User: Which sequence fits this backbone?
């Protein structure tokens, strides 16, 4: 008994700490909401979407004119020797000349071969693609979150199962001690019970350590590393969707799968790239306008000493690059090849997505079946354990046989916990591939 007390004291201390720690249940919905708000990867993706949104705006479209303001001043100081037509000559030392000017200039492209038009459409499609990439990041992060969340839930339930197992083993020590005191058994029964308590205590401690480590992983995803681990409690309730509902999602996966949508968007961007390149075959037409002011103060040798002018000017410029050394032809050919490659890539992604959905759907059905079998296995082992416990109390079976029934029940319960969360995670993987992960309550 002396060897058991230190371990039991440590277990009791851990239990008391967990009992007195204030904890609230972190639901799956709350975990997802905190991840969407705080996760660094999702925040970076949102910033990229904001950049793409800025790029697709009217200020980056090329449809607005450019307006520039210019101003200048010049000063000259020189010695002048002037000869007039009348024959008079005049020398002027230190003659000053001052000139001032200011202008407001407008440039606007009226037509550029539709290059600006398709570039604008391309930026719109790029924004759509960036949103899809952000969605993919969110889906992967949520799937990672749920994987860790379910692992915390599984270990939490396992800790509860191991607590019950340890309590039963401790009761065996008490019972074996009574039997030894009354001469009904030898000291060996007490030693066997003590060994089982030690083993159960070690298993419980290791599982609790795994639980704490996994909780830290969860806090990293939530971006809440400073939170007290003991304040985290997990909702262990699991609800599965009907197979009919999932099958309907699979039928419409080609419209919702994020990889397929990205491939379609990339194909559209490449198509716009061809049209932008073809704009080099067409002329461009530009409008210019300006308002200017000029002032000059000239030396006395000039016919006019002060000159001030102001006024408007406007013009149209037509530019047609009839041959640009073959650059436009090359750009169009290369863009067409890229478009063809993008079509091949899309077809490849379609095949891969169909394969992945079929694999994940088969995996899910297999996991669900295993879970149902494990549920029945727990019921069978509970019945076997209860019968073995009664027989053990009556002395009809040995402690070794009772321990085997206890171990079988422990394994059945932990296997059921594993099968339950494996099945749910497999279901989420199917939902991700069908594009429904963010549309349903998990």
Assistant:
């Amino acid at each position: 008994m002396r060897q058991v007390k230190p371990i039991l004291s440590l277990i009791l201390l851990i239990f008391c700490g967990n009992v007195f720690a204030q904890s609230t249940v972190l639901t799956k919905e709350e975990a997802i909401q905190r991840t969407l708000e705080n996760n660094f990867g999702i925040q970076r993706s949102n910033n990229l979407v904001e950049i793409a949104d800025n790029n697709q705006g009217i200020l980056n479209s090329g449809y607005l004119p450019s307006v520039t303001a210019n101003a200048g001043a010049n000063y000259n100081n020189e010695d002048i020797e002037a000869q007039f037509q009348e024959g008079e000559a005049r020398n002027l030392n230190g003659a000053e000349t001052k000139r001032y000017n200011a202008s407001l200039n407008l440039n606007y492209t009226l037509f550029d071969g539709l290059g600006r038009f398709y570039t604008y459409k391309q930026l719109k499609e790029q924004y759509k693609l960036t949103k899809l990439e952000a969605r993919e990041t969110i889906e992967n992060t949520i799937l990672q979150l749920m994987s860790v969340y379910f692992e915390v839930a599984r270990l939490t339930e396992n800790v509860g199962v191991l607590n019950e197992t340890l309590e039963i083993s401790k009761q065996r020590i008490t019972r074996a001690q009574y039997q030894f005191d009354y001469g009904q058994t030898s000291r060996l029964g007490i030693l066997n019970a003590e060994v089982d308590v030690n083993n159960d205590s070690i298993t419980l401690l290791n599982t609790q350590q795994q639980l704490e480590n996994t909780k830290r992983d969860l806090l990293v995803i939530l971006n809440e590393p400073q939170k007290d681990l003991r304040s985290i409690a997990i909702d262990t309730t699991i609800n599965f969707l009907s197979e009919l509902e999932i099958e309907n999602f699979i039928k419409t996966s080609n419209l919702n799968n994020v990889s397929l949508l990205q491939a379609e968007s990339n194909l559209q961007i490449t198509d716009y790239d061809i049209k932008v390149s073809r704009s080099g075959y067409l002329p461009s037409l530009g409008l210019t306008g300006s308002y200017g002011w000029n002032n000059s103060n000239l030396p006395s040798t000039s016919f006019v000493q002060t000159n001030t002018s102001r006024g408007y000017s406007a013009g149209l410029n037509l530019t047609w690059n009839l041959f640009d050394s073959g650059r436009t032809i090359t750009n169009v050919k290369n863009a067409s090849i890229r478009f063809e490659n993008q079509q091949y890539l899309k077809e490849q992604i379609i095949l891969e997505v169909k394969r992945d959905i079929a694999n994940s759907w088969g995996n899910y059905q297999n996991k669900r079946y295993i879970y149902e079998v494990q549920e029945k296995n727990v019921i069978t082992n509970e019945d076997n354990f209860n019968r073995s416990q009664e027989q053990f109390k009556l002395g009809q079976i040995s402690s070794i046989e009772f321990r085997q029934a206890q171990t079988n029940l422990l394994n059945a319960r932990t296997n059921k916990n594993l099968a339950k969360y494996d099945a749910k995670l497999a279901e989420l993987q199917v939902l991700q591939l069908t594009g429904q992960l963010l549309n349903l309550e998990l």
